[in-house]
Design a protein that fits this description.
By secondary structure, this protein is α/β, with parallel strands linked by helices. It is 47% helix and 15% strand. A seven-stranded parallel sheet has the order 3-2-1-4-5-6-7, sandwiched between helices. Helix 4 links the parallel strand 5 and strand 6. The protein starts with a strand and ends with a helix.
Length: 249
């Protein structure tokens, strides 16, 4: 029986992916920065482990506790919707610490195991913002584009060892708390300098009002496909809006 470790599993894509793989008979290690046993079912095939991807000691402890795994899904991420001019550099660093450096750190932690064994899959969850030009996403897109480039080169390095690397690119999931978390508790006035106010209002209205969007289950299914793909496909758009952007690109 295979084992998957998923970061950021307390809600959204991570939680749904944990449920999907568990329902398919896999052993699941659901990691969370703040463990919440109530969000996933009790099962002898499902463990919840504390993991903060921005802390090296936490990464080391989590992988030691996890034991052997077959798949790593880097799903933990910090959302960001903002006008870049109004974004403090402290926020920029916070987003990159999780979305970019955290993914790299967990990946580096698992690579020796996968390489020595000659098998393993790494799936990095990015975003459909990498597929098109979208307003209010300069910071978020930069952090995710970095992982797209990282994964494409990583896949070439790992191929000789039988290890695969993929990206899953979710579209806009309006049923998650993405938009609320993306402001990081700041008011719109703090995030949007006055000259950008009208532009930002229109952009946010278009984002939250779109008729075609991604569901959590779309992402879980695409992660499943990415894990099992043997064709060499690198990118897996998830959700109808992401697929449409990918085709247009």
């Amino acid at each position: 029986m295979k084992t998957i470790l998923i970061t950021g599993s307390s809600s959204g894509y991570g939680r749904e992916t944990a449920l999907h793989f568990h329902n398919q008979g896999w052993n699941v290690i659901a990691t969370m920065r703040t463990p919440r046993p109530d969000v996933l079912p009790e099962s002898d095939r499902l463990r919840i482990i504390e993991l903060d991807v921005t802390k090296p000691d936490s990464i080391t402890a989590a992988f030691e506790a996890a034991g052997p795994i077959d798949v790593l899904v880097n799903n933990a991420g910090v959302p960001s919707i903002s006008v870049f001019e109004g974004t403090p550099m402290t926020r920029v660093r916070e987003v990159f610490e999780t979305n970019t450096f955290g993914v790299m750190a967990t990946t580096q932690a698992v690579l020796p195991r996968f390489r020595e064994r000659g098998s393993g899959v790494i799936v990095n969850v990015t975003s459909s913002v990498v597929l098109g030009d979208m307003p209010l996403s300069a910071l978020y897109k930069a952090s995710k584009m970095a992982i797209e480039g990282f994964t494409s080169s990583l896949a070439l390095e790992l191929a000789p060892f039988g290890v695969r690397a993929k990206t899953v690119e979710p579209g806009a999931c309006l049923t998650t708390s993405f938009a609320a978390k993306a402001t990081n508790g700041a008011s719109p006035d703090e995030l949007v300098p006055a000259p950008y106010a009208e532009f930002a209002r229109k952009a946010m209205g278009e984002f939250t009002g779109q008729a075609v969007f991604t569901k959590e289950s779309d992402v879980a299914k695409r992660v499943w496909e990415a894990v099992h793909d043997m064709t060499g496909q690198l990118q897996f758009p998830a959700g109808p809006d992401a697929v449409r952007l990918s085709r247009a690109k």
